[in-house]
Design a protein that fits this description.
The structure holds 3 protein chains of 3 kinds. Chain A contains 11 helices and no strands. By secondary structure, chain A is mainly α. In chain A, helix 2 crosses helix 11 and helix 4 crosses helix 6. Chain A is globular. Helix content of chain A is about 75%, strand content about 0%. In chain C, helix 2 crosses helix 3 and helix 2 packs parallel to helix 4. Classes of the chains: A mainly alpha, B mainly alpha, C alpha+beta. Chains in contact: A-B, A-C, B-C. At the A-C interface, helix 7 and helix 8 of A face strand 6 and helix 2 of C.
Chain lengths: ~270, ~300, ~350
């Protein structure tokens, strides 16, 4: 069929379009030359320079701390929300909770960033805390954005997991808290793990919200990359980009494995 | 009786995320609106309180709509809003035209390839947005890969101006937002029963007719979701125009960024953001209504 | 052992259980039988504690448990899907309920072992549920319930996922288990064979109400209503008008002689006759009820029996089943006589 060949061609072209630019960056990161257009030989010297760049290393440490904290917070909050949305059909705040969950999803990042900064400043004015912005404020901001994604991942998985397992546990004499820890959460662990990874990657990737909510001592990796890129393309950034792509790919692979294990779906539909 | 039907656990499971979002998602929006009525001042915080003490020692209302008046008076803002909406709309359309056949091809691909293809589509969604934009800077620069290749091939004598054009913005936008369009389309098409199309063909429809009369209407919710997921963030996009368009292409995200980070005018930034939210509320409400009506 | 008093439960505007009262004796095997949507599963979930009734009272072993949560009730439910925890082994599944009772160490191990031995699954204790066949999963689910030594075992469609041969075997095993354990069984089923082979009593449900509770034999031979007659086994049912000692049935073109259960003459009623109680013959028959000049319209061969659909002079189609033997069989178009005794006729409300 001719139309089938056409759509397959578009798929292949689309995938090329998605991958070629990033692949070029990865290849360039191993180019010995400072000029992207000229290949002078394979080298890992830019990785070496990256590893001795204190500014980048400090930013990377900040980013990892923020991402781990934000992902953990987002997972705790998102698991609560996802579970309750999947398991309880009617509760008083359901509509309100669903509405609140869409706010971080539909707001442009630049508005989210500004709004959270204004909140942190207003809270500091009123309560004298937190004094200034730092790792903690970025963490809270990222957790707010990421928890909506965790919520949807957990909700989708919980809807697909029969309520009967929980009922069976209750029938066998387990009080609600035991059912939660012995049956509900273990069965949702793949979705919870995938949600954590997604939140981690999102936090690691964010430039705009971090720019608004971070303080002078808490420059994140994307912020460092951004200011470096504004000055021009640098081979060191190519090396850093390659490392970040590899890290994201590893997180995705792990999440995909978690999600599809025991018959789960890669994308909740 | 599932654990979440126990009152205590349910209260905790609803309460924690609810309070969190109330404080960190809803309250900040109100603050933006509030501070948009203030004026810039030197000091901490860098905006005047709405209720202040005047020269006579009385507490008085100090807020005003000066920021909005300024936005209305300077045509730069109107141009930036309109241009952002235009660029976002064209981006959305282009993304839809590319993503639909891609999603369709993945759904129709042999089962054993589907997961791999899906991971291929998801991977860019997971890799750093900034890195992906940066990749285009490297390609489009005057001495970047595209120009140096074309020069080496003798196609051109001097570098084409690729970077800092509107073309570069469209390229970057479609490239970065394509996965956001693909995922909801795929999710919808995957649920679509192949037998429906087969039934249409069996009843004498041509493949083209079956596509337009069966596949497209049934994937409408996916199309709406994908368009919203692309259009809304695209209007407020900052990184892509900042890195790929230079000073030529005016977009509201860039304007707001410089009001905030360069001019340090927080109240004006808040007003720009409030107007942006109003601009975005229109398509969201319209599309949500249409899709809920077609679902009913 | 169990006493249900006027249980009511609605979901929105639908009354799933609409005023059910029922007593279940210790060591009794009761089957709740009905078409899907009749409320039998809701009633079972009320017993297990998953649904709180809108009205009515549930007593188990002399205690009012109406608002007791499921984990504090002395009953256990075997789910239709078995609901074996997929992240635990067979042994862990069985141990789960015992651990909730505070059992640990050697005693726990012994009880798990005993329960698994009872269903002959002790050799597969370390497998995970997805490594078991459907029949094996069902045994583990059963072991998980009986390990708790409940006062009442509730079973929701236990045979639904089993093939025919396994069903027969499981029925026999459930009956022997009941004898050994000495506890009450309540089984929900839509399969009349389950009810007939295992249950001491059958409770037939329709639209949220129990329409008849009696032994399987009585439900079959003396159905309380038209619905019971047609749901539990097959039946010929004809409308008619009561007269003295008979019911006039226009569809048969004849009067049906009846022994008992007749209302006052002139009242509209229905009569039911089981197909296997009707004799079919090429010769002229005699007896309480005889229909001559009937024509065979269709023949359905079913192995042990053959069902004949016979058109009688009044234009009704009468269903007759006849044990297959070496002798005579009939073909389409044959003209036959039908006869049945008066004691085979049950009078039902119209």
């Amino acid at each position: 069929m001719r139309s089938a060949r056409t759509i397959n061609f578009i798929l292949a072209a689309g995938l090329l379009f998605l991958y070629v630019p990033t692949l070029v960056v990865i290849v360039t990161s191993f180019n010995d030359s400072r000029l992207a257009g000229v290949w002078t030989g394979f080298s890992v010297r830019w990785y070496g320079e990256l590893m001795s760049d204190r500014q980048f290393l400090g930013a990377a440490a900040n980013s990892l701390i923020i991402a781990a904290g934000a992902a953990t917070l987002a997972t705790a909050l998102g698991t609560c929300a996802g579970l309750v949305l999947a398991r309880v059909n009617r509760f008083r705040l359901r509509t309100a909770l669903l509405g609140l969950l869409t706010i971080p999803l539909v707001l442009p990042e630049i508005v989210t960033g500004l709004s959270l900064l204004l909140l942190f400043v207003a809270v500091e004015q009123t309560f004298g805390w937190p004094s200034g912005r730092g790792l903690g404020t970025v963490m809270v901001a990222h957790a707010t954005l990421a928890m909506t994604y965790v919520t949807y991942a957990v909700q989708a998985r919980a809807v697909g997991t029969a309520r009967q397992y929980e009922e069976a546990a209750a029938d066998l004499g387990a009080p609600p808290l035991n059912v939660l820890t012995a049956v509900t959460l273990p069965m949702l662990l793949p979705a919870i793990g995938a949600g954590w990874l997604l939140a981690f990657v999102m936090s690691l990737d964010d430039l705009v919200i971090a720019s608004f909510t971070s303080g002078p001592q808490s420059t994140t990796l994307p912020m460092a990359v951004f200011s470096s890129v504004r000055l021009g393309v640098s081979p060191k950034v190519n090396a850093l980009a390659t490392l970040l792509v590899v890290l994201s790919a590893a997180c995705l692979a792990l999440a995909a494995w978690l999600q599809t294990r025991r018959g789960g779906k890669l994308i909740p539909t | 009786m599932t654990p979440l039907e126990s009152p205590g656990l349910q209260r905790a499971a609803v309460g924690l995320p609810f309070l969190w979002l109330l404080v960190f998602a809803f309250l900040p929006l109100l603050l933006i609106v509030k501070i948009s009525f203030s004026q810039m001042q030197l000091g901490v915080p860098p905006y005047t309180p709405l209720l202040g003490v005047n020269a006579d020692g009385e507490t008085a209302w100090q807020g005003g709509t000066a920021n909005y008046a300024f936005i209305a008076s300077d045509s730069l803002y109107a141009k930036a809003y309109l241009n952002s909406v235009r660029i976002a709309a064209i981006t959305t359309l282009l993304a839809l035209l590319i993503a639909f056949p891609m999603a369709y091809a993945i759904v129709r691909a042999p089962r054993r390839w589907q997961t791999s293809l899906l991971i291929l589509v998801l991977l860019p969604f997971w890799t750093s947005f900034l890195i992906r934009v940066y990749a285009w800077v490297g390609l489009l620069r005057p001495n970047g890969l595209i120009n140096s290749t074309l020069e080496a091939l003798g196609v051109i004598d001097e570098p084409l101006k690729l970077l800092n054009t509107e073309f570069a913005v469209f390229l970057g936008m479609v490239f970065c937002y394509l996965p956001y369009m693909l995922l909801p389309l795929y999710a919808r098409l995957e649920k679509l029963d192949v037998r429906l199309t087969e039934a249409a063909l069996d009843l004498g429809a041509s493949p083209t007719q079956a596509f337009w009369r069966i596949t497209v209407p049934l994937s409408w919710p996916g199309i709406v979701a994908g368009c919203l997921l692309v259009f809304v963030p695209a209007v407020g996009e900052f990184v892509i125009p900042e890195l790929l368009s230079g000073a030529d292409v005016l977009m509201i995200g860039k304007v707001m960024w410089s009001e905030f980070f360069t001019n340090r005018d927080w109240p004006l930034s808040a007003a720009v953001a409030t107007v942006l939210l109003l601009v975005l509320a229109v398509p969201v409400v319209v599309f949500q209504n249409r899709s809920s009506r077609s679902a009913a | 052992m169990i006493s249900l008093t006027d249980i009511r439960k609605s979901f929105g505007a639908v009354a799933a259980v609409d005023g059910v009262s029922l007593d279940i004796a210790p060591n009794e095997f009761l089957a709740l039988l009905g078409a899907s949507g009749c409320g039998k599963t809701t009633l079972l979930r009320v017993l297990a504690g998953f649904e709180t009734p809108d009205a009515g009272r549930v007593m188990i072993a002399g205690q009012d448990v109406t608002s007791t949560p499921p984990h504090k009730r002395p009953v256990n439910l075997m789910f239709q899907s078995y609901a074996l925890f997929p992240h635990m082994t067979v042994a862990q599944n069985v141990a789960f309920g015992l651990k909730q009772d505070g059992l640990r160490g050697a005693e726990l191990t012994a009880r798990v072992q005993d329960a698994l031995a009872l269903v002959e699954m002790d050799t597969l204790a370390l497998r995970r549920p997805d490594q078991l066949s459907g029949g094996q999963q069902q045994r583990v689910a059963l072991a998980r319930c009986i390990a708790k030594q409940p006062k009442v075992l509730l079973l929701d469609e236990p045979m639904a996922a089993l093939d025919r041969a396994l069903r027969e075997r499981t029925r026999l095993e459930l009956m022997s288990l009941r004898k050994r354990l000495g506890i009450s069984f309540v089984i929900v089923t839509h399969d009349q064979e389950d009810a007939m082979t295992m249950a001491d009593r059958v409770a037939v449900m329709d639209k949220g109400k129990i329409v008849q509770v009696a032994s399987a034999r009585e439900v079959y031979e003396r159905p309380a209503s038209r619905l019971v007659a047609s749901f539990f086994g097959e039946a010929n049912i004809w409308d008619g008008v009561a007269a003295h000692g008979r019911v006039d049935c226009p569809a048969l073109g004849a009067a049906v002689a009846v022994l008992s259960g007749l209302p006052a003459p002139g009242v509209s009623v229905a009569v039911s006759v089981r197909p296997e109680r009707i004799t079919i013959s090429a010769e002229t028959l005699s007896g309480d009820n005889v229909l001559q000049d009937a024509v065979i319209e269709d023949v359905v061969y079913l192995g042990t029996v053959t069902t004949y659909l016979v058109r009688v002079p009044g234009d009704a189609i009468v269903r007759v089943t006849r044990q297959n033997d070496a002798h005579q069989s009939f073909a389409r178009g044959n003209v036959v006589s039908l006869a049945w005794p008066a004691d085979a006729v049950v009078v039902l409300a119209a």
